[in-house]
Amino acid sequence: MSLKRVFWHLLLALMVFVVLYQLWIFLHICWWVEHNPSSSAFMRTGLQTLRDDNPDARLQHQWVEYRKISNNLKRAVVASEDAKFIDHEGFDWDGIQKAYEKNWQKGRIVAGGSTISQQLAKNLFLSTGRTPWRKLEEAAITWMLERMMSKRRIFEIYLNVIEWGNGVFGAEAAARHYYKTSAANLSAYQAAKLAAMIPNPRYYDKHREARGLIRKTGIIQARMRYAVIPQ
């Protein structure tokens, strides 16, 4: 078989793999419109990390319905992570542009322009690495999420699967881990502080009174009154 034919066979195999992988993702998203995910890519990675030190380690995670999560936390997360969540279709192009300009000025990644939908796509399916392929896949999954799910459902899943500490996933586990209360009973300050932890949860789990965390908590709390959340 000639090299040219081998090349085309390999290319065809790659295309078939990509299509099947996208179909696998699409079917998962269709299922999750009505059913709750039992785990995510980030959960599986987090559990493996914990079990490297302790084979019997377990994640802290408990699913809670959207209506049983404090509106304080919903507003805090929108204010912190994606103020235009209700209005955009998965991508905040102004936010992406501002993040790019800020990173260019600093010469390193200091800001992200990811929306809640993009973050959910990454958490559910992808690794923590930063590669062009991963960003393309993240965009494709975000597009599917936005077209298959309501904003409320996207936000409900997001609040239940994101990492909030070392082995801590979801709003209920976070509320109990940090404040010994339920996600339904979080105060405005507690919610703002949890939202401030999202970009670096494992660090803030160990440094709960870090100056930057306290400062950001105050900023988020002041913005919460303007946040629009799915009903």
Distance between the termini: 60 Å
Beta-strand content bin: under 5%
Structural class: mainly alpha
Rg estimate, integer Å = 19 Å
Q: Which word captures the global form?
A: globular
The run of helices and strands is HHEHHHHHEEHHHH
Look at the structure and give the mean pLDDT.
89
Question: What portion of residues is helical?
Answer: 55-70%
Task: Tell me what you see in this structure.
This protein is mainly alpha-helical. The protein has 2 domains: 1-35; 38-226, Penicillin binding protein transpeptidase fold. Helix content is 62%, strand content 3%. The protein has helices spanning 3-32, 41-53, 71-81, 93-106, 116-125, 132-148, 151-161, 171-179, 188-197, 201-206, 211-223, and strands spanning 60-61, 163-165, 168-169. Strands 1-3-2 form a 3-stranded mixed sheet. The relative contact order is 0.16.
